């Protein structure tokens, strides 16, 4: 008999009430966000279609403030698609939150639209969550799409909160299968691919939309940890990420939000004393060094946006929803 679901109304907290699954199967809701990358997103949907044929999934796509409506294009690749269009750009966190609110699945799998998946992804991630109720969020091994022999992510070390620095485990190593049987607790999940249980979010809540870009997934992991949940990595499955192996082009929006959100992350997740010492280090040591690098690269235009990111933190509450940047 085909499994049946009865979705209930969204409750006062913005969450869908529990789904009644008559066959006791677990639905996985895949959530992705598109921002003016229709061809990249199309390839993503085709990858999902080709690799999740035997899985019980729904796919939710949030068209996030895009200049054009590409619903018909996306449905040509995935007719069963749950399509949501936002007229304004809600950022990474806001776009994903919009998709999460519409999700019916017991499991939520957040995937970047510039990823392609493997056939055992949902099975392995959900199996880990089922076998260990202490796990709150899990990410798979991530390889570079253009260089599939090179590892981007095999976990993260814990954060040094005085410096707001940590390291990627396995980053830029050649993949020789060294993580194939690896399943362990890790510092943080990777925003390109994260799975969690929908019921946990009733306690933990959504990603904080005040970040808009960068650090929102690290902050979300901290919320899971405070709720007593573990952050997990498994190498038993993998995805391919179309992100460049190089650092990437500097931009005004990247400079501003990386600066602003690094400070905001520390303010939100450490004591006032730690935040004070970090701020002294960041403003007197790290930021001047970064400013000199910008000047050497001939990118003096970015210096003011570094200062704007710092000034936002000096003039706004850590709970402020004012982005300080016109999107």
SSE layout and pairing:
Blueprint: E1 5-6, E2 20-21, E3 28-34, H1 38-51, E4 57-64, H2 71-77, E5 82-86, H3 91-102, E6 107-111, E7 115-117, H4 121-131, E8 135-144, E9 151-153, E10 183-185, E11 193-197, H5 201-204, H6 216-226, E12 230-241, H7 252-269, H8 272-296, H9 303-315
Helix pairs in contact: 6-7, 7-9, 8-9
Give a nutshell description of this structure.
By secondary structure, this protein is an alpha/beta fold. Helices cover 35% and strands 20% of the residues.
Could you walk me through the main structural features you see in this protein, from its secondary elements to its overall organization?
By secondary structure, this protein is of the alpha/beta class. The protein has 2 domains: 5-241, Spore Coat Polysaccharide Biosynthesis Protein SpsA, Chain A; 252-315. 35% of the residues lie in helices and 20% in strands. It is built from 9 helices and 12 strands. The chain has helices spanning 38-51, 71-77, 91-102, 121-131, 201-204, 216-226, 252-269, 272-296, 303-315, and strands at 5-6, 20-21, 28-34, 57-64, 82-86, 107-111, 115-117, 135-144, 151-153, 183-185, 193-197, 230-241. Strands 3, 4, 5, 6, 7, 8, 9, 10, 11 and 12 form a 10-stranded mixed β-sheet that branches. Strand 4, helix 2 and strand 5 (82-86) form a beta-alpha-beta unit. Helix 7 runs parallel beside helix 9 and helix 8 packs antiparallel against helix 9. The longest helix is centred in the last third of the chain and has 25 residues, at 272-296. Residues 1-24 have low confidence and may be disordered.
């Amino acid at each position: 008999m085909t499994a049946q679901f009865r979705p209930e109304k969204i409750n006062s907290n913005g969450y869908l009430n529990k789904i009644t699954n008559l066959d006791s199967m677990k639905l996985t809701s895949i959530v992705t966000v598109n921002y003016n990358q229709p061809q990249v997103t199309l390839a993503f949907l085709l990858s999902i279609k080709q690799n999740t044929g035997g899985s019980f999934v729904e796919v939710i796509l949030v068209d996030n403030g895009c200049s054009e409506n590409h619903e018909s294009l996306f449905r040509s690749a995935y007719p069963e698609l749950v399509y949501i269009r936002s007229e304004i750009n809600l950022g990474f966190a806001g776009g994903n939150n919009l998709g999460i609110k519409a999700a019916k699945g017991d499991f939520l799998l957040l995937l970047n639209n510039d990823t392609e998946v493997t056939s055992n992804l949902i099975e392995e991630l959900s199996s880990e969550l089922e076998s260990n109720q202490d796990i709150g969020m899990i990410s798979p091994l991530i390889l570079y799409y253009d260089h599939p022999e090179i590892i981007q992510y095999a976990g993260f070390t814990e954060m040094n909160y005085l410096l707001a620095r940590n390291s990627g485990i396995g980053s830029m190593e050649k993949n020789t299968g060294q993580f194939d049987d690896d399943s362990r607790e890790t510092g943080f999940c990777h925003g390109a691919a994260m799975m969690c249980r929908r019921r946990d979010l009733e306690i933990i809540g959504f990603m904080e939309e005040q970040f808009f870009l960068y650090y929102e997934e690290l902050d979300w992991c901290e919320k899971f940890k405070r709720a007593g949940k573990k952050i997990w990595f498994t190498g038993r499955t993998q995805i391919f990420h179309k992100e460049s192996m190089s650092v990437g082009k500097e931009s005004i929006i990247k400079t501003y939000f990386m600066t602003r959100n690094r400070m905001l992350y520390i303010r939100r997740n450490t004591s006032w004393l730690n935040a004070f010492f970090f701020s002294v280090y960041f403003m007197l040591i790290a930021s001047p060094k970064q400013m000199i690098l910008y000047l050497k690269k001939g990118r003096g235009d970015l210096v003011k946006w570094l200062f704007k990111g710092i000034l936002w933190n000096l003039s706004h509450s850590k709970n402020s929803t004012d982005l300080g940047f016109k999107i």
